Amino acid sequence: MTGSYVETWYRERLADPGPRPPLAAEVEADVCVIGGGLAGLTTALELARAGRGVCLVEGRRIGWGASGRNGGFVSPGFSAGHAALVRAVGEDHARALHRLSIEGMRAVADAIDGLAIAGADPVFGYLSASRHEAGDALKTWRDQMARDFDYPIEFWPREQVQAALLSPRYFQGLYQPQAFHIDPLAYSRSLAGEIERLGGRVFEESPVTSLGSRSAAHRVTAGEGAVIAKDVVIATGGYSGRLCRRLHAAYLPIATYVMLTKAEPELIATAIRTPAAIGDRRRAGDYYRLVDGGRRILWGGKITTRTDEPRRLADLLRASMTSTYPQLRDLEVDIAWSGLMAYARHLMPQIGSLGPGLWSCTAFGGHGLNTTAIGGRLVAEAITGQSDRYRLFAPFGLAWNGGPAGRMAAQATYWALQTQDWLNELRR
Ligand SMILES: Cc1cc2nc3c(=O)[nH]c(=O)nc-3n(C[C@H](O)[C@H](O)[C@H](O)COP(=O)(O)OP(=O)(O)OC[C@H]3O[C@@H](n4cnc5c(N)ncnc54)[C@H](O)[C@@H]3O)c2cc1C
């Protein structure tokens, strides 16, 4: 069924008036955006703000994909770490990219503030805690972020981390006061409302089946309807089908998972005593946060190239939680879900031109909340001629995903990272 959201806690919290009508006729627009996740929504909103006639076409519901199911962490950076970016493009270029990622994070905060998005419930603070001795490395990173980006980070010694996270697993941590966590589905849906308020048109339950060119315009077909537009932006994330073969061959859909516990505030307070978002700094680590006024934990982790949901998903995630916090062994899971992320081989977004009037804004991986905000902004700036900042992503093109062997390689890389994480903990 195209009209339903998958079962998630975000969906349970939502007052859903039902889907918008599908695209059912031929319409014209300056720009057609395909995909109603945060990449498409941000692009369309930036274009609508710039006075362009925008049409956004979503196959299911606004925020139905990763954007409405994720962990809700909004922090600077990309899926490719900063050191990898420095190796790939050099210090200056990597710094320019990191600056964009901070701009993306601030764009999300500004949108929530400016549009007074009540349901997004932003809570500031992100603590990333190490599971082995890492004090010197963390202080170096803190100093670099302050020096190069004027971005404040606090170093927390082990006692301070363990006062907030009552687990012997943790050592030192870094606390980012400007990063935050949100309800991403409420946020996504508010952006769609704002696009419409500015005169843009949003269609749901309208899977785009073909994309063709007609003189100086493109024709985007969905069911009985079509959009004729000079510019088209493909923002279909981990749910991209074969609509654009070049994009299809250049990304891997990777699944990841989230669970929500039952409401047990006293029990949870024996383990977690901070409202901040928490990540554990392992490369294949867990991330979690208190929600529902501290009454429940929303816990995410694990990735796999298997796109179907594993059996006993809730048990798998719960086992991660209790291995960190044995005192939570009686805490039950209310609901668990999965979502697909789009990863390119270089782990960077695919933001750029695919040909005259055809743009990609996709492959944001597991770091999409800030990066979709900047990706959408840059594509909109390119279409309106306001800037060519999108060219900073030119080194990260449409590299072939390696087909089935690429999937196996991605899974093997994840297992190798897990092993490395485990060895680091043993050596602590
Ligand atoms: C479980 C999970 C947890 C995560 N946690 C975090 C986190 O805490 N912080 C963070 O920064 N990132 C996180 N991420 C990553 C982040 O959610 C994604 O990078 C981001 O949402 C991608 O946005 P998107 O718009 O590119 O894709 P999506 O949100 O997946 O949107 C793509 C949309 O395109 C639509 N579509 C596809 N094909 C068509 C078509 N032919 N016609 C019309 N529509 C189409 C789909 O229906 C979908 O709605 C997480 C991801 C997952 C899955």
Description:
There is one protein chain. Strands 3, 4, 5, 6, 11, 12, 13, 14 and 15 form a nine-stranded mixed β-sheet that branches. Helix 2 links the parallel strand 1 (26-34) and strand 2 (54-57). The chain has helices spanning 9-13, 38-49, 82-89, 91-114, 135-149, 158-164, 184-197, 245-248, 265-269, 313-324, 368-384, 403-427; strands spanning 26-34, 54-57, 73-74, 123-129, 154-156, 173-181, 201-203, 208-214, 217-222, 225-234, 252-261, 277-279, 287-291, 296-304, 333-343, 350-355, 358-362. It starts with 8 loop residues before the first helix and ends with a helix. Helices cover 35% and strands 25% of the residues. It contains twelve helices and 17 strands. Helix 2 (38-49) packs parallel to helix 7 (184-197) and helix 3 packs across helix 4 (91-114). With 428 residues, it is of the alpha/beta class. It folds into two domains: 1-122 and 182-250 and 344-397, FAD/NAD(P)-binding domain; 123-181 and 252-342 and 404-428, D-Amino Acid Oxidase, Chain A, domain 2, CATH 3.30.9.
Concise account of the structure shown:
By secondary structure, the chain is of the alpha/beta class.
Q: Regarding CATH, which class of the largest domain?
A: Alpha Beta
Structural class: alpha/beta
Low-confidence runs (pLDDT<50, min 5 residues)? none
Helix content: 25-40%
Overall mean pLDDT score?
92
CATH domain fold name of the largest domain: FAD/NAD(P)-binding domain
Number of helices: 12
Number of domains: 2
Number of strands: 17
Q: Kindly report the oligomeric state of this protein.
A: single chain
Distance between the termini: 49 Å
